[in-house]
Write a structure and sequence with these properties.
globular; 242 residues; mainly alpha
Length: 242
């Protein structure tokens, strides 16, 4: 039951991050700059190292999670372009904004939140020390995911009420993931492939989707600094957790 307690705390952390993003909507370009950096940092300092750890342990060949990364990147690119082309054939677009794209982005975060909750449950199956260490890692990431998830929704013209509903799902997902581990244990090979797929999603969203939107109204030194700070923020969190 202690795993469920930490999963619940991680849900509260996601809610706190999301409401922070909602209250900063007037400065969306600035928060998008931070979000882009945080997403890129998430891929570089958290997701890829986890994949490499699976590979170094001999659990899976590196080609499969990297293939999943490319599939994740290209799949989101295809989904986004298809939505935008159907939305307006006559307009040329450099900034990608459509509510369906925001929902697709949030869905990826929900999936990751679910597996983070499962990670808490599996770690506590090993021992309490491992469980607490993983739980602290998840709580820190859930705050960032709640913040990033709401910004992804708002950047694609999703209403405040719809963003709140998505935030509630992102927040609740770790609890469901922790509950699932009471019934089933994920194989490490499947988890490694998922991490690659999720990294591809996040890399595309951060570099090709959110970052251009952050600078859509012209270059800003503050936005650039916040992008760098977002990446450094994820670096510090992952190093502190390790």
């Amino acid at each position: 039951m202690i795993a469920l307690f930490f999963a619940f705390v991680s849900a509260l952390a996601a809610e706190a991050g999301g409401f922070l993003a909602l209250n900063k909507r007037k400065h969306l370009n600035l928060t998008l700059g931070f979000t882009a950096g945080a997403l890129i940092g998430l891929v570089a300092f958290d997701l890829l190292p986890e994949i490499f750890e699976f590979v170094s342990d001999g659990i899976i060949d590196i080609v499969w999670p990297m293939l999943a990364l490319v599939v994740g990147f290209l799949l989101f690119h295809t989904i986004e372009k298809s939505i935008l082309i159907h939305q307006s054939q006559e307009k040329e677009y450099t900034v990608h904004r459509h509510p369906h794209v925001g929902y697709a982005s949030a869905t990826a975060l929900i999936g990751h939140s679910f597996l983070d909750g499962a990670s808490i449950g599996l770690a506590f199956q090993v021992n309490n020390a491992a469980g607490i260490a993983v739980a602290l890692a998840v709580i820190g990431h859930r705050f960032a995911d709640g913040f990033n998830g709401v910004n992804l929704m708002l950047s694609h013209k999703t209403s405040r009420e719809q963003s709140k509903r998505v935030l509630a799902i992102v927040a609740a997902a770790p609890i469901l993931g922790a509950l699932l581990t009471l019934l089933y244990a994920f194989p490490d090979t499947l988890l490694a492939i998922y991490l690659g797929f999720f990294a591809g999603f996040m890399l595309y969203i951060g570099a090709s989707d959110i970052l251009p939107q952050a600078h859509s109204k012209g270059a800003s030194r503050i936005t650039l600094l916040l992008t760098i700070f977002g990446a450094l923020f994820m670096f510090v969190i992952t190093r502190f957790i390790d």
